[in-house]
């Protein structure tokens, strides 16, 4: 008898089952993440617990270890999983993923193309948001990053979602091929060094009214991408912002901001594609003095602001290269069920 095909568990609810990732924490907030496996023990510096004592128990259960210490067990939330999962490339932080889903209006059933997959932090959020009725095409230039991304997605969902297509290559080539086949996307999400180089191809593949969204590291990259969108003519006036998240310390009367926070991680830039052949309206506003001065725009010190034609490398932007050794270590940790 043929076994029934598994479907990824999007709900992540119900009693713990073998293969689940579970966060076990004590009363001091010390936390460990384990992958449940029958007939297995988890040892800490204060006793051990049996995985079998958790399998079949409800999410959020409290158990006692061999040393009499009480521990509580929960499935990791998306935020927990993202911050702890092994990675080769840096991830898009959950605070930015949330902005992408909301301001990009990523809906169930959406057709999404993303480029610059990295370790798949955003891919997982997109796959959950669009669900089985949607489709996500992820394009990554580095094969080692793609392999880490695939393993992280499988570890999160339990298997690879059927509505996900991951390929190695350039966004420009992939978008052109899709456009030639008559396929369209509702949303295009870019996380890459030079998103301005992809504006034309994004316009070709985007549905009329679709959303272009870029996650950008530096101000100069943002300025150059904005000018490329304006020059194209069929994108609305871009919006850009950054999100800073400040947690608070809560202890009786001692309620105050914590001393450390996730401040700037990147900029988000969005624009909508107009109907084909319809030029976007330009926002009428008085320009700031000197903002459009040709001599200033063309000065070498302002390269990138207001658009430019020079070629940039990762080193020009201060980005550090990521060795394949780091990707291999991330793959090993994922397959062994380890976290960061």
Notable traits:
single chain, 340 residues, alpha/beta, Vcp-like ATPase, Chain A, domain 2, Rossmann fold, 2 domains, 7-stranded mixed beta sheet, 4-stranded antiparallel beta sheet, elongated, disordered N terminus
CATH top level assignment of the largest domain = Alpha Beta
CATH superfamily of the largest domain: Vaccinia Virus protein VP39
Strand content: 15-25%
- Could you say what the CATH topology of the largest domain is called? Rossmann fold
User: How many structural domains are formed by the residues?
Assistant: 2
* Total of DSSP H or I helical runs spanning 4+ residues: 9
Largest sheet: 7 strands, mixed
In whole angstroms, the N-to-C terminal distance is 40 Å
* Sequence stretches where pLDDT stays below 50 over 5 or more residues: 1-7
Mean pLDDT: 87
Measured as a percent range, the helix fraction is 25-40%
**How many β-strands, per DSSP?**
15
Biggest sheet, strands in spatial order?
Answer: 9-8-7-10-11-15-12
Order of helices and strands: EEEEEEHHEHEHEHEHEHEEEEHH
Shape call? elongated
Structural class: alpha/beta
> Architecture of the largest domain, according to CATH?
3-Layer(aba) Sandwich
């Amino acid at each position: 008898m043929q076994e029934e095909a598994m479907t990824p568990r999007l709900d992540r609810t119900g009693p713990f089952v073998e293969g689940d990732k579970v966060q076990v924490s004590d009363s001091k907030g010390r936390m460990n993440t384990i992958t449940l496996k029958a007939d297995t023990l988890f040892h800490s510096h204060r006793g051990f617990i049996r995985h079998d004592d958790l399998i079949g128990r409800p999410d959020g259960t409290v158990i006692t270890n061999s040393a009499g210490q009480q521990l509580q067990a929960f499935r990791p939330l998306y935020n927990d999983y993202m911050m702890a999962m092994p990675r080769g490339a840096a991830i898009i932080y959950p605070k930015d993923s949330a902005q992408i889903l909301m301001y990009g209006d990523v809906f169930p059933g959406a057709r999404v193309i993303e480029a610059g997959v990295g370790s798949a932090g955003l891919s997982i959020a997109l796959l959950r948001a669009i669900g089985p009725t949607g489709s996500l095409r992820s394009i990554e230039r580095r094969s080692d990053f793609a392999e880490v991304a695939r393993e992280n997605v499988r570890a999160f969902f339990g298997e690879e979602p059927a509505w996900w297509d991951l390929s190695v290559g350039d966004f420009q080539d992939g978008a052109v091929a899709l456009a030639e086949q008559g396929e369209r996307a509702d949303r295009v999400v870019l996380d890459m060094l030079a998103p301005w180089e992809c504006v034309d191809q994004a316009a070709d593949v985007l549905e009329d009214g679709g959303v272009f969204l870029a996650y950008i590291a530096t101000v100069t990259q943002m300025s150059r991408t904005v000018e490329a969108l304006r020059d194209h003519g069929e994108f609305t006036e871009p919006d850009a912002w950054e999100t800073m998240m400040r947690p608070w310390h809560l202890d009786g009367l001692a309620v105050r901001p914590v001393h450390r926070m996730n401040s700037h991680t990147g900029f988000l830039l969005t624009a909508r594609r107009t109907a084909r052949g319809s030029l976007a309206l330009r926002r009428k506003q008085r320009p700031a003095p000197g903002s459009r001065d040709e001599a200033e725009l063309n000065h070498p010190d302002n390269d990138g602001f207001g658009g430019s034609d020079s070629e940039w490398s990762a080193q020009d932007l201060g980005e550090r290269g990521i060795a394949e050794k780091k990707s291999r270590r991330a793959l090993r940790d994922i397959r062994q069920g380890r976290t960061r």
